[in-house]
Amino acid sequence: MAGQSDPHFSLFSAEEVEFMAEDEMIEIVPNMRMDPLNLLCGDFGPFLPQIATQVPLWLAVALKRRGKCTIRPPEWLSVEKLTEALEAERESPRVFQPLPFHYVEISRLLFDHARDDIPDIYMVRSLVEDIRNVRFHKIEINLEEIQGRAHAVKIKNLSAMEVNIVRPFVVRALQAFYKHDSPEMIDQSDTTANRRPQVADHVPRRVVRR
Amino acid sequence: MGHYYDIDDILIEEELVSVVFQKAANGVGILDPGAETSTVEQGSKVELPFWLAHELHLRQAVSVNVPACFDQKTRKEIQADAACVDLRNRCAYFYELGCKIAPLVGDKTIGALLLYAFKSRYKDVLIKAHTAAFSLAPKFMTLLTNEETNLYEAAQSSMAAFKRWRMGGARFQRAAVLGKKRRPDD
User: Fold this and answer.
1) Is B15 exposed, middle or buried (CB count within 10 Å of its CB: 0-12, 13-18, 19+)?
2) Is there a contact between A176 and B95 if contact means CB atoms under 8 Å apart?
3) Could you report the predicted ipTM of this complex, rounded to two decimals?
4) pTM of this prediction?
5) A-chain residues within 8 Å CB-CB of B130?
């Protein structure tokens, strides 16, 4: 699946990533009575007043906008959990905490549409913002380590939006490294290594099998 | 040869490189501004665009010199502090031209020089692209080669797109026809 907004680079726009995040399930408490919805993506409901049920985020937001339900914020979107996560993020400069894959988008949708359902919304909002900033800084630190003929960068527990932001940059950077560190350009220079010692100390390269 | 329709590839090949004619060439005095007749003498030094130099080199009519942007002075500057070297001024297509010219001139250190320069300048681009304010950018941008500028802009535009999304704005876009009221006489 490729992004539709920019056919040239097959990139996703932030709105497209948000669209995908809307398929995540979330718990709502309806205040009306409605038969089950039988949709292509699954069956949801039945909707009974005060009986919690699981629906996709887009449906939750649609019902919320009509005042037909309250949304129960997910467990991770609470002051305690976020404070814990933020501290853990700050403590380990390399490792990322396992947050939901779409945490940026989900939190933004909930802040926009269900602000009255989230306790301590200002605190929660600034915590999410802090976590995002800390994590993004860590991504940059991780990316600084791209060297030579890398085929990929491995960073665990990145979220969808974070990957999406760095994608155009990383793709280009990897292509450039791949080109400049190609064996045709470099291997010849090993014979003259003594002239430029600080340039030529290469780890042995693996040749990609075709 | 590169990609036929790639405008950058065409522009790279427009870069001038200095060559020495190995043979006297008749009727092409226009190439050599110092020539008094229409003949380019053997051994005369002429600046030619890369695409012409390349073809003539294949026919062994000329020998290609290492362009000025890969000379010892630039190399020393790159070794001292690669991030501050004004590569754009020297050659906007520093890396691409280097890749193309290395096999022609038979200088085996160019590949390593390019990699070293890119490696050390890449970090600077990475850090500045995501964090620097737009007002700071122009000064820094003047140092970057074309390839680095592309990299920088890729990072900056995706960051800007994310910020735009986060700030909100029109979440639903209406088609222009939907908003219009129908007039009774329609």
Assistant:
1) buried
2) yes
3) 0.78
4) 0.77
5) 136, 140
